[in-house]
Write a structure and sequence with these properties.
The complex is a heterodimer of chains A (182) and B (220). With 182 residues, chain A is α/β, with parallel strands linked by helices. Chain A has a single domain, classed as 3-Layer(aba) Sandwich (Rossmann fold), CATH 3.40.50.300. In chain A, 38% of the residues lie in helices and 14% in strands. Chain A is built from 7 helices and 7 strands. In chain A, α4 crosses α5. Helix content of chain B is 83%, strand content 0%. Chain B contains 9 helices and no strands. The longest helix of chain B is centred in the middle third of the chain and has 30 residues. Classes of the chains: A alpha/beta (182), B mainly alpha (220). Chains A and B meet through α2 and α3 of A and α1, α4 and α5 of B.
Chain lengths: 182, 220
Amino acid sequence: MVLTGANGSGKSSLLRLLATLLMPVTGRLLWNGAPVRDDLSAYRARLHYVGHLEAIKPALRVRETLAFWAQTRGIGTASVDRALAVFGLAQIADWPCRWLSAGQRRRLALARLVATPAPLWLLDEPGAALDADGEARLVAAIAGHRDRGGRVVVATHQPIALSGGSELRLGDFAVAETLVDF
Amino acid sequence: MLAYFGLFRREILLAWRQGGEIGLALGFFVLVVLLFPLGVGPEAEILSRIGAGVIWAAALLAAVLSLDRLFAGDHSDGGLDLMALSVMPLEGVVLVKCAAHWVMTGLPLVVLSPFLALLFNLDIAAIPTLVVGLLIGTPALSLLGAIAAALTLGARRPGVLSSLLVLPLYLPVLIFGAGAAEASVSGGARPHLLLLAALSLAALPLAPFATAAALRQALD
């Protein structure tokens, strides 16, 4: 699903809500019909969230960063090298992150998606700062994830070349209110 | 367990590679301690009497100085969001971060303290007690400091605010820590050390919950 809408329409807030980083004031968040609050940690283990900020430390190396975030999900670092390759970072895996450009930082943040499996990807402006190659790799990663039965929610105000997904436009408060209430 | 180990390793790596912050806290500790003899004069008897208190007060201030880096970096770069979504409960994240903070700032203060005690002509019998007191009291400084660091996330001047919040909480640690070193000369340090240990042990389960609650507020 692609969430679109003007600046301030609530795309990022909705994603943070889906990620349980925000809690709905009214209504409930359900996963397969069950309230996620019933087993918050199980729900969180099912999702990946990539927000505006990349959670990258300049003093750490690219591989170290990805390995660390894989470990925080309780999973080993076996897929780290593959994730780096998927997003074209293999050759700079030993660089300190302070050397990375904005686009490379974005790729590293997105590589978390591949380093550890999770059925639900919540992506906030994932194409920001990516060049054509980076965007192609992102689209391929999303397509592969969907082929494996995964679900993706992308918030963006830029067109992104995803096929077969639905689009939800957040245009006014009434729409946002309905969504929060599901 | 892998997640906790990974977080601890990263915290140590970051502190080591950004060595300026540890150096700043240690330099501040040494400088504050060295300023006192210049201010109160070189009389050995006076220095001997105030030495333990000065070292403890300097340790408190150095701990406050290093609190900023506990959560602020992860809050500003989005890392705290991901930690909240990780397999670790936030309370566990806090505990690991406090442990790393203590290893990189509290422990070096403990190691330096006997040398600084010699400068103050502290009674030789009091030096082991001072070191043991710092060893069991400084974990409380990291744990209590974490509460203030979390409460002031996003504040305009978090350093000043966290000092105001945390220094009153540090008072019992200062009183029993300095008291232990003074009492050791007369052989009565044990009650002070036990109370110091009690403070650290009480902070160990309670502070992570308070800190995690403050972090959840900051994430909203």
